[in-house]
Write a structure and sequence with these properties.
Rossmann fold; alpha/beta; three-stranded parallel beta sheet
Length: 397
């Protein structure tokens, strides 16, 4: 089987996923080729060290179509030409690509309509409760999505949403939003041996709760600030560490000042991927208070670092990775009082926190790049097998 993996930019999160896929494919005698559309990230302002190391190793069958541009720079002609060249060179049985609504995914969808013979799988972490949905838009989306052959999504709620858009459950798998659990676990353990140095380098407080989030409205960072203030845990020496940046940065800082919490809430801006395990390792637990979140990779990272978490019900990880009362707490979005209550319970009960931590490690062991690779291959096998059978039946008649 020949697979073509198409992605806008191979960021640090995607590198271990692709490497696991390439390794599994090679072990089976399959061939995987990678097309990176753009060489620059449209999301992260700092260098993607994992991507740099990956390309420095000169991996085989890897192409970047537009090295000096990012997603917003478009380059339709160069991208279209590059994809046609890649398809001609690789002759894939299956094309796996990130998203279903980029112009290059639509281009591949069009090529399939025009007769190109490959199965088309999209990867996504959208689910039904990601904000308000509009009936007309969902109907149009269904027309588009139902033309794909399969979907690799984050979790079971995401599978249900893909099904509502026309992808039968038999043609979807989970495992898209995984992290390099082994790396995060090892790096967080190593960081504990250098705790004093790390605290000094980042200016970290003695005890803190961590929230890794962009500063945008739906992330509800201001609600967490309110809940933390209500908890009064700052009086017992616990701080809140916010790792992130975004357009609502000024509002976040104003909320901290307005509540008189500037001595107890610290903000770190962009922290490179490779340095994040150190911040998780020294935290008490993680919080993700979003109005909704497609998944919540920061919670996967916290679990890999043996830290429990508090999340809202509308986060993708809720009730799939984060199990209420087992390895963390799940609260309703927008409920500052409930969030404050769970923060207090987890911060003040050492035995509970330790039990949740152990369960977090056990839970996240499944959500690895191996799961991603296995399910991509399994889905591709099922689609190509079905296609081969259909062609055989057509030939027989």
């Amino acid at each position: 089987m020949r697979l073509l993996f198409v992605i806008g930019n191979l960021g640090d999160y995607h590198v271990p996923r692709y490497e696991a896929l390439a390794k599994l494919a090679a072990a089976r005698g399959d061939k995987v080729s990678l097309v990176e559309v753009f060489g620059r990230s449209g999301l992260y302002g700092f260098p993607q060290e994992g991507r740099i190391a990956f390309f420095h190793g000169s991996p085989p069958d890897v192409t970047t179509l537009v090295e000096d541009a990012g997603e917003r720079d478009h380059h339709w002609w160069r991208v279209g030409n590059g994809l046609l060249t890649a398809l001609h060179r690789c002759r894939p049985d299956v094309v796996v690509m990130l998203g279903y609504n980029t112009y290059y995914s639509l281009f591949l969808r069009l090529l399939k309509v025009l007769g190109k013979r490959f199965a088309l799988i999209y990867m996504s972490d959208s689910k039904a409760d990601d904000g308000r949905r509009y009936a007309l838009k969902e109907r149009l989306k269904r027309v588009l999505v139902s033309g794909f052959d399969g979907a690799l999504v984050a979790g079971e709620r995401h599978r249900a949403y893909a099904s509502s858009l026309g992808i039968p459950m038999t043609r979807s798998r989970i495992g898209f939003d995984v992290i390099d659990v082994e790396y995060f676990s090892a790096a967080s353990r190593a960081a504990l041996a250098s705790a004093s140095t790390i605290r000094c380098n980042f200016g970290l407080p003695a005890r803190y709760v961590i929230c890794v989030s962009r500063f945008i409205k739906r992330k509800n960072v201001d609600l967490l600030i309110e809940a933390f203030c209500r908890s009064q845990l700052h009086a017992a020496g616990l701080s809140l560490l916010l790792v992130g940046q975004g357009p609502r940065g000024p509002e976040v800082r104003n909320a901290i000042d307005r509540m008189g919490m500037s001595r107890h809430i610290q903000i770190l801006g962009c922290v490179p991927y490779r340095e994040m395990p150190a911040l998780y390792s020294l935290a008490e637990f993680a919080v993700l208070p979003s109005a909704y979140d497609q998944w919540g990779l920061c919670i996967s990272e916290a679990f890999a670092a043996a830290k429990p978490a508090i999340v809202t019900r509308t986060c993708g990880v809720a009730n799939e990775l984060v199990l209420d009362g087992i390895n963390g707490f799940v609260v309703e979005p927008g409920d500052a009082a409930a969030l404050a209550d769970r923060v207090v319970r987890l911060a003040t009960d050492d035995a509970l926190r330790e039990r949740f931590s152990q369960n977090a490690v056990s839970t996240v062991r499944r959500w690895t790049p191996t799961l991603f690779a296995t399910n991509v291959i399994e889905l591709a096998d099922s689609l190509t097998g079905a296609a081969t059978l259909a062609r055989s039946r057509a030939a027989a008649t």
